[in-house]
Design brief:
Number of strands: 18
Radius of gyration: 35 Å
Oligomer: single chain
Structural class: alpha+beta
Largest sheet: 4 strands, antiparallel
Helix content: 40-55%
Number of domains: 5
């Protein structure tokens, strides 16, 4: 078996884009000489595995490489028109060396096509003339020349389209890639002998191995290498032209050829043909600190260049690129956010380990530059499937589209930008609880902003219900989270839904996907009592006031909606220790306020334990809390007789929420009487009722809404009701 050589090309790196494409170009060209050659991205370099030595491969490139015919007779500046630089094109046509025979043939065919179309050479064709020329060229150019045409132009439908990798049909503004390709070839190849020019070997070592070499050309490289564009402050002095290695340009263009555009039909696009290009999507201003919303708006798109760790042949790489239309579920990835989410579902798709993300951004006036944004690692064990909840009912698409509309308030664009950034983070790796909480808080803000916009109600559904996984990911084991989770789990009675979400936002109480005002217009809900009464509470107030108002409205509902119990149960509750912390300090209020709207969007997991609760709270609070506890909970404690009912007592809350300390005593008296009249005997006589232990009455009122775990309710009952061990 022939010995294999591992050759590390230290001059071929994932960034800039010119260097990445150069690596593909090397693999593509050398595969004609050594069909068994393979390449992999090892660290920051392209590594070749070949039966040929590095010296042998270099000799092939210098003296035997046959350039691909790269020409663009449809472009001004291509060398085919009177005002163009025609020197290199003419030299190639006039040469007789075998290395350029394919090139000469293609140039002659292009000339014939221009004549057949009756096109003059004063200027390049426009509109219908250009389209006719392109279609004729597509039919008569040899296969090797069609590689360039297919990589730079898509012919589909009535008008040509331009893949972003190669500008607008093989040029970047006034820089025509094909004419420059011919010029750089002649910098390297002697058109008389067909051998390499004297400087070519040193320049090849520079291109492949980053070995220093003199003689770089003061020429443009276009969008592919931002650092070599030149311009102000590019070097000493005020301004300079870019300097490039001719081999870099030639190999870069050869490396762009494996990319080819294709017309595909996407189900979500009304059946119209649209451009699809390997690993290319619309830009979003997320995932990189170098991108702003204006960048995304003016971008030509994003390129996600695949990096693979295992040695791979050019045939396999070509197949990978031809199939590089990443899908998110059943639909193709449309933008960078879709792409990053899809990448982490692929689990090592086709051996790709990483993607280098580039944004084709407007820089340096109106020129576009392929700006490296970030390196995205493919996750083999995806963790982010739970964020797919945002796709339900097309909510994410609706919201992002709405936020970009011309007459939409600017705050929605800012919210979208934050959401896309957050989703970029959690799509790539398992989030920390803090990151998951930040995303939930943001969704609560978005829901609030949508709630307050009449225009939004016409275009965007409410944020869909989020699965329990959101709650599990966001759980930091902190008391603020536990209290917010318990409050978010508040619900109605039996089949009569009253989720907290419908109190924080104007959402239909049963249909979480419908704004309340829209539901009221429907025949089905026009007479629904729950749609006609006010239950919503503004979240733009302090926590104590908001909780008090939420409780007041809930206590009014049994009479107004014929509930047979108080709608104060939650699937989740807190221990007395957490409740005691809340009663004794307002230090948690801001965090609870921030978490609550987002958690209210989630399905809250039910508590699984019924053990006794640690901690104690004041007897005054215990009496008031038990007097507002749902009958079902008290019966589960075997405290409330089956034939007894403990009706809601709004007066307790009214006394406490007044803020008058003297009224706290009256609230406790009302609670004592109500418990006793319902068969729940307090341990203390009426003339020895406890005080509030220094807790402010409004805070005490707000705490009455916080649901308790079963063990915590049982601990309260044992502390302030008679015979707890016998009767409870």
């Amino acid at each position: 078996m022939a010995e294999c050589h591992e050759i590390v090309l230290t001059g071929c790196r994932p960034t800039p884009l010119a260097s990445y494409l150069k690596g593909l170009g090397v693999l593509r060209i050398l595969s004609n000489f050594d069909p068994a050659i393979k390449a992999a991205w090892v660290g920051e370099n392209l590594s070749l595995v070949s039966r040929k030595s590095a010296e042998t491969l270099s000799h092939y490139l210098l003296d035997d490489y046959t350039p691909t015919p790269v020409l663009a007779p449809w472009n001004g500046g291509s060398g085919f028109y009177q005002k163009d630089n025609q020197t290199s094109l003419r030299k190639i046509k006039e040469s007789d060396i075998p290395r350029l025979s394919d090139f000469r043939l293609s140039l002659d065919i292009a000339d014939r096509a221009l004549d057949l179309e009756g096109l003059q050479r004063e200027a390049s064709p426009k509109n219908e003339d250009k389209t006719r020329l392109l279609n004729r060229l597509r039919g008569i150019l040899p296969d090797n020349a069609l590689e360039w045409l297919d990589a730079s132009i898509l012919l589909a439908g009535e008008k040509e389209r331009f893949p972003p990798l190669l500008g607008t049909g093989g040029n970047d503004g006034r820089l025509d890639f094909t004419n420059n390709f011919m010029q750089r070839l002649l910098d390297l190849i002697d058109v008389e002998s067909g051998k390499a020019n004297p400087k070519s070997a040193d320049l090849l070592d520079l291109a492949l191995y980053a070995k220093p070499a003199p003689g770089l050309a003061k020429q443009a490289i276009g969008q592919f290498a931002p650092g070599q564009v030149g311009g102000p402050n590019a070097t000493t002095g005020y301004e300079t032209k870019g300097a490039i290695n001719p081999w870099d340009f030639v190999l870069m263009i050869e490396g762009a050829l494996p990319f080819a555009a294709a017309a595909v039909r996407r189900n979500e696009q009304s059946g119209s043909d649209i451009l699809s290009y390997p690993f290319t999507v619309r830009s979003v201003s997320a995932g990189s600190g170098s991108l702003g919303t204006d960048d995304a708006a003016s971008s030509r798109g994003e390129l996600w260049m695949p990096l693979w760790d295992n040695p791979t042949s050019y045939t396999e790489v070509r197949a990978l690129l031809s199939e590089g239309r990443v899908a998110l579920g059943a639909r193709p990835a449309r933008d960078a956010l879709d792409f990053v989410r899809a990448v982490h579902r692929l689990g090592g798709y086709r051996g790709i380990s990483r993607f280098q993300r580039y944004g084709l951004l407007m820089r340096s006036g109106k020129a576009y530059l392929a700006t490296p944004l970030e390196r995205v690692k493919v996750t083999k064990n995806p963790q982010s499937g739970w964020i797919d909840d945002l796709e339900r009912n097309d909510w994410l698409t609706e919201f992002r589209r709405f936020s970009k509309e011309k007459n939409t308030a600017g705050r929605f664009a800012e919210l979208r930008h934050r959401l896309e950034n957050a989703m970029f983070v959690v799509s790539q790796r398992k989030p920390s609880p803090g990151q998951a909480q930040s995303l939930l808080i943001l969704l609560g803000e978005i829901q609030g902003a949508l709630s307050r916009s009449v225009k939004a109600h016409e275009s965007v559904h409410p944020v869909p219900q989020l699965s329990m996984q959101w709650v599990l990911e966001a759980n930091d084991q902190g008391p603020e989270f536990r209290i917010a989770r318990a409050l978010a789990g508040l619900r109605g009675i039996g089949e009569q839904a009253l989720p907290l979400r419908s109190q924080l936002f104007p959402i239909h109480h049963a249909n979480r996907n419908q704004w309340l005002e829209n539901a009221r217009k429907s025949e089905k809900h026009r007479k629904d009592p729950a749609c006609l009464i006010r239950v919503q509470v503004s979240t733009q107030q302090n926590l104590v006031s908001a909780l008090t108002e939420l409780l007041r409205l809930r206590l009014s509902l049994p009479a107004r909606l014929d509930f047979d119990d108080k709608p104060l149960n939650s699937v989740s509750g807190v221990d007395l220790i957490d409740l005691m912390d809340f009663l004794n300090s307002d230090g948690m209020d801001a965090r609870i306020s921030a978490l609550l709207p987002g958690l209210a969007l989630c399905e809250i997991p039910a508590d699984s334990e019924h053990k006794s609760s640690d901690g104690t709270v004041s007897a005054a609070f215990a009496l008031c809390k038990l007097a507002l506890t749902p009958d079902a909970s008290l019966r589960a404690l075997r405290g409330l007789p089956e034939d007894m009912h403990l009706p809601a007592v709004p007066q307790i809350l009214a006394r406490l929420s007044s803020g008058d300390s003297a009224q706290t005593e009256q609230a406790v008296k009302i609670a004592w009487r109500r418990l006793r009249s319902s068969g729940l005997e307090p341990v203390m006589p009426f003339n020895q009722l406890p005080n509030s232990a220094g807790i402010g009455p409004r805070r005490l009122a707000a705490a009455l809404l916080i649901p308790l775990k079963f063990g915590a309710t049982r601990a309260l009952a044992k502390a302030v009701l008679n015979d707890p061990e016998d009767s409870l």
